């Protein structure tokens, strides 16, 4: 990984002529009149493991939502698998683990297996569940190591187990892209390591991963490329190149300046 032009797709199952998994061009987005993402251009190639970092409130969640078509940019364009992001077909090719999955699922009176089954029919209300579906669900539960918890209610799981359930749902839907928003908040250190091992293994097997993570150390260790954001993109490239730039100080430093400014 010495190239400074970002990722390569060596060894990736997708051919070199395949469309990038995600492509943002000059993307700008504001809540009301408050810009939170400005002029961001970014390509995520198939097979990448992108760590998205930046200070609190720097627009990471918003950017991730833009990347998978949950929000539409005010200016610029976003494509996923070569198609406009907002036309994603019910989300089957994208597995999204939002930040508040823990809180939301506390209230859900459903079992782990039922959550994973949802991956087989997003947006299809009257789907007949067949043997292929059943096999895919069991394989996904097994793959993330929670087959023994299949009949437990999701609200009864620990944080780490719950995140695995949502990853299993993505695997069951045969997603090619996994988008995770700070998945290990509130998860103990050991489970967190194991969780990132799993993400690394899935990535080695060809899954493209975009991960928001506040721990810069984790990201530089685990991701194959880094995007450092604070409204604008300060850096995108591999972790080695990132370590040699001032991007981190620039992105986090300007947040401090903004904060000081706001309070003065
Ligand atoms: P991060 O994930 O880096 O913490 P976010 O994308 O969540 O950043 O938020 C960027 C900025 O936009 C923050 O200042 C946040 O308060 C604001 N924001 C986020 N979501 C909304 C929303 N739905 N409406 C208005 N402002 C929002």
UniProtKB/TrEMBL annotation:
Keywords: ATP-binding, Nucleotide-binding, Transport. It catalyses: an R-cob(III)alamin(out) + ATP + H2O = an R-cob(III)alamin(in) + ADP + phosphate + H(+). Its EC number is 7.6.2.8. Required for corrinoid utilization. Probably part of the ABC transporter complex BtuCDF involved in cobalamin (vitamin B12) import. Probably responsible for energy coupling to the transport system. PANTHER family: IRON TRANSPORT SYSTEM ATP-BINDING PROTEIN HI_0361-RELATED (PTHR42734:SF5), METAL TRANSPORT SYSTEM ATP-BINDING PROTEIN TM_0124-RELATED (PTHR42734). Belongs to the ABC transporter superfamily. This is Cobalamin import ATP-binding protein BtuD. It comes from Halobaculum roseum.
């Amino acid at each position: 990984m010495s190239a400074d032009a970002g990722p390569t797709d060596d060894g990736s199952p997708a051919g070199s002529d395949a469309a990038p998994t995600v492509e943002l061009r000059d993307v700008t987005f504001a809540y009301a009149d408050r810009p939170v993402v400005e002029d961001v251009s970014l390509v995520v190639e198939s097979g990448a493991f992108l760590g998205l970092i930046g200070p609190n409130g720097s627009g990471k969640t918003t950017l991730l939502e833009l990347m998978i078509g949950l929000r539409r940019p005010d200016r610029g364009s976003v494509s996923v698998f070569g198609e406009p992001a907002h036309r994603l077909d019910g989300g089957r090719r994208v597995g999204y683990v939002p930040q508040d999955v823990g809180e939301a699922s506390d209230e859900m009176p459903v079992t782990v297996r039922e959550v994973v089954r949802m991956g087989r029919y997003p947006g299809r209300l009257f789907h007949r569940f067949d043997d292929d579906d059943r096999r895919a669900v069991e394989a996904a539960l097994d793959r993330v190591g929670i087959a023994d918890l299949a009949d437990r209610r999701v609200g009864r799981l620990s944080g780490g187990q719950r995140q695995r359930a949502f990853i299993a749902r993505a695997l069951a839907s045969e997603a090619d892209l996994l988008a995770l928003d700070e998945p290990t908040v509130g998860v103990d250190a050991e489970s967190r390591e194991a969780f990132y091992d799993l993400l690394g293994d899935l990535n080695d097997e060809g899954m493209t991963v975009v991960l928001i993570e506040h721990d810069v150390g984790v990201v530089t260790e685990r991701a194959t490329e880094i995007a450092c954001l604070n409204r604008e993109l300060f850096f995108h490239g591999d972790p080695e190149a990132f370590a040699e730039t001032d991007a981190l100080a620039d992105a986090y430093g300007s947040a401090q300046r903004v904060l000081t400014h706001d309070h003065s």
